[in-house]
RNA sequence: GCCGGGGUGCCCUAGCCCGGUAGGGGGCUGGCCUGGAGAGCCAGUGGCCCAUUGGGCCGCGAGGGUUCGAAUCCCUCCCCCGGCGCCA
């Protein structure tokens, strides 16, 4: 064990306690870990003394003979038993201590708003001119409180993304998918397939142009690496296991992109390290029953382009801002109005010290919904996976950050609502044209409702 | 999946058969030397514990076992290389 949590535990346990309080989590564990650590240190000191003595004896054994030799061997055996016993107590102590340390969340950043849940999230900026239904004006004012957001009143009622996809455009089918695979699965057809591919290419193109290295990662990880990258709670609520094997389907390419450097030591000039992952994401969505049951907003499987940064500790907050800006550029280009929200302490996952969400405006729902999540995990992941920074003899842990660039299904939902016209067609954002024109069968300007479904009705 | 060979510190490599202080080279960092650089020479270059200088323990892919003592012997697993098989 080294550094960060352990160091904080020994040198400044109040730092851990305060952070836990802000997250509305109990602080008892800190005291327990502190006590275990003290006892562990006593035990290891005693063991080291015994081991030293045994090593001395063992050195004498080859030089001695007959009775003296027998005597030494006996003494060494006796020490061996004592050592083994102490090692067992020590192991028990360190295991419990480490289990507690591993369960402790990141120490939150001072700019994170306090509060127990998402109602305490703080919007920090708005972009675009949202289309607001007259009937949803109150909700809009509530969601933009404190900001004077320029908006446009809609006099016709746009369809929700789910109905737009399945009933109007007839290019998606979650009913059929539910028969075969269950709820939260989907078929997408025709223009939506081209749209999906264009979105991925656009996001990849934009992010790689900023120096990010594109990566297709493994879609499964071993448990050991999975727990290096996320906390148990998330793990259990969202990760699918491969039966009979120590393998888990990834919930985001962030996970294999971070585990990729487990055990590595970066030299200072090798940082920052920028990656952009493209992969499917698999999520159980346990505990979300009843939420977003229609359409493809919340599904078990989707494709995502993801930004990942390894940075020097002192530069990570700057990178956090840059990552969210990169994501914003994508949604500005797609002409989707959005707001950036600073997530409250109580709503933060364990790895993150601070998180921004980018939430797109959904006219039919009259609310902003999460499309992007951008976190600074500081040294939480790097500590567990031993990803270090070599600083002239001193060792530090790098900081890791991740941010969605673009998740296809949710972005499609946002396009279907925001670019919907009264006649049921959907305007395709201009930025996507160059990624569509290479395909003969792809739509270029707009998506038009099909006369009949691709599937039997 | 089967057979064979391998995994040693940041990198390469010796040691393994036959158990007894992990050796050499390269790189990097610092120092000496130099007008400056290079060469050369010296030292440092994994983790942990105690401590004032300093001392000690652990560490040879991972975990277990045998032994007074394991890089070395035994078992299980992971990964890499070669061959065979299967396969989009």
Name some characteristics of this structure.
single chain, 457 residues, alpha+beta, Helix Hairpins, BirA Bifunctional Protein, domain 2, 2 domains, eight-stranded mixed beta sheet, three-stranded mixed beta sheet, 15 helices, elongated, RNA-binding
Structure description:
- With 457 residues, the protein is of the alpha+beta class.
- The chain folds into 2 domains: 3-103, Serine-tRNA synthetase, tRNA binding domain (Helix Hairpins, Orthogonal Bundle), CATH 1.10.287; 118-447, Bira Bifunctional Protein, Domain 2 (BirA Bifunctional Protein, domain 2), CATH 3.30.930.10.
- It has 15 helices and 19 strands.
- Helix 1 (3-11) packs across helix 2.
- Strands 1-12-13-14-17-11-10-6 form an 8-stranded mixed β-sheet. It has a 3-stranded mixed β-sheet with strand order 9-15-16, with no helix packed on it. Strands 2-3 form a two-stranded parallel sheet.
- It binds one RNA strand of 88 nucleotides through residues 1-2, 41, 44-45, 47-49, 51-52, 54-55, 57-59, 61-62, 69, 72-77, 79-80, 222, 265, 267, 390, 392-393, 395.
